[in-house]
Amino acid sequence: MADLNHPLRVYQRELFLGVDAFDAASHLKPVAVLAKMQELGTSQCEVLGYDEAWMQEQGFFWVMVRMHLEIYHAPPVGFIRGETWRVGNVGALWRRDYLLHDLSGHKQAAGVALWALVSRKNRQVLRPEHYPQGFPSTPEYLALAEPPKKLVVQEMPLWTEFPVVYSDLDSNGHAHNGRYTEWLLDALPAELVMTHQVGRLQIDFRSEAYLGEVLQLHAAKENPGVWRFAAYTGERLCFVAEMQLV
Fold this sequence. Notes:
The chain is an alpha+beta fold. 17% of the residues lie in helices and 39% in strands. The protein has helices at residues 30-47, 52-58, 177-187, 190-194, and strands spanning 11-17, 60-71, 78-90, 93-101, 107-119, 158-163, 198-205, 214-223, 226-233, 236-245.
């Protein structure tokens, strides 16, 4: 764990992983890792006074632009400890890092997310001067050495389709980013994902997916264990992803 001077430079708290965080083979689901990391980030924002009510008042919301996850070990059902902190800006984006440990301090997962602030009025990305002022940053402490680089879009065959339904939506009126990880795993053969843990996953979010649209998922196996994806809603690129199974 980090030992840093400001008590909120690295925000830490215990989290609970229930049975729904694992599959029947006891593999830790990426969506559960993503959910716990985002829970940490939301909690730190609330403690610092930049909660959902503040964002509503300011007229914007956070959108994840890029997320890179690495899962090292699957802990048992129960409590773990999480850490999150703001590293700083990457261009116009806000970098936030995450670590999950078991209660003995062994690292279970790491993540780096790049976020943008988006106007509720016109869905336009806002410049960094709109970021919360006074939010502490910790550039000397990194979950992963480098921020995730933009994935290249490749031509791939259409693999399957998913309609965007009510249960996919969050309070911002679009499919929640956690659904993207579930779409990827639901698209692969069950016998494959039940016999392998997701060791690495990156998703680049390019546009929002809305209720009633149909997500067309293109996929290709690049080499043993590595899959690439590109998803469209009509002609609009929705996301690009790369996943490694171990």
